[in-house]
Amino acid sequence: MTDTPLLEVRGLNKSFGPVQVLRDVDFSAYAGQVTALVGDNGAGKSTLVKCLGGIYSIDSGDYLFDGRPVHVHGPRDAAALGVEIVYQDLALCDNLDIVQNMFLGREIKRGLVLDDITMEQKAAETLAGLSVRTVKSVRQHVSSLSGGQRQTVAIAKAVLWNNRVVVLDEPTAALGVAQTAQVLELVRRLADNGLAVVLISHNMNDVFAVADRIAALFLGQMAAQVKATDVTHSQVVELITAGRSGDLGLRQNGATV
Fold first, then answer.
1. pLDDT band of 256, cuts 50, 70, 90
2. Are 85 and 7 in contact (CB under 8 A)?
3. What angle do CA 156, 161, 166 make, to 5 degrees?
4. pLDDT digits (tens, 9 = 90+) for 100-156
5. pTM score > 0.85 for this model?
6. Locate the ABC transporter domain: which residues (predicted)?
7. Rounded to an integer, what distance in angstroms lies between the CA atom of residue 187 and that of residue 181?
8. Mind spelling out the 3-state secondary structure of the chain?
9. Is the dihedral of CA 91, 93, 97, 100 positive or negative?
């Protein structure tokens, strides 16, 4: 554990034409911790994540990785740092098996031929390292998997490439109770393995179940970044809906307390 965030942005601004979506946003994610990014629809969560992943360029502000200023001009730059985003649609191919999905676009070859044995071993080792027991075979087609198993494969795919920051966009959306519990257990395990995990979620029960820190966005501004143990469920809801809860949050002029 360290006091230096693994990933940090300071004073981030992002506009689309005349619409300013993010205004002077500060955000930090620490190795070995789950940081929950919460906010109402339209608060700017997706835009912030796409800025972190290099999909959107930053208008102004500083992007730091491991305490050093870096320049992220595209997804390749973010991937080179070790930042991986698992989007809500998962981007998995139903007609391919687990191994093929995990190595899609990054296949290992032996000469001109695909090295299926090595890829299968690495896929199995990654799933075993995450203590995944719900997948019977790495050669199962994704079309045969449950929602929870699909989410597990998408997360394992992100971990496979030695990424240091994993951003999960609503990983428990549309999952049942048992599958949600499995995914949240996996999220916690990622952080325990030393990764910085950013969890985007609307479900406060999920947030308080696994998060170490909570970052609340309100209308494009960071209302508060706090330890999960320092706030209550109702305080976080107030930060999301009003940008303020008691002495915590934004002042009327938009400054953060």
1. low
2. no
3. 60
4. 999 998 899 999 999 999 999 999 999 888 888 788 899 999 999 988 888 889 888
5. yes
6. 7-244
7. 10
8. CCCCCCEEEEEEEEEECCEEEEEEEEEEECCCCEEEEECCCCCCHHHHHHHHCCCCCCCEEEEEECCEECCCCCHHHHHHHCEEEECCCCCCCCCCEHHHHHCCCCCCEECCEECHHHHHHHHHHHHHHCCCCCCCCCCCEHHHCCHHHHHHHHHHHHHHCCCCEEEEECCCCCCCHHHHHHHHHHHHHHHHCCCEEEEECCCHHHHHHHCCEEEEEECCEEEEEEEHHHCCHHHHHHHHHHCEECCEEECCCCCEC
9. negative
Other CB atoms within a 10 A radius of the CB of residue 162 amount to 8
Is pLDDT at 161 greater than 60 in this prediction?
yes
pLDDT at residue number 175: 80
What domains sit in the chain, N to C, each tagged with a CATH number? 1-82+164-257 (3.40.50.300), 91-162 (no CATH)
Task: Name the token pair of 119.
Answer: 């890829």
User: Cα–Cα distances in Å, from 97 out to 33, 101, 121, 126, 206?
Assistant: 31, 6, 14, 15, 29
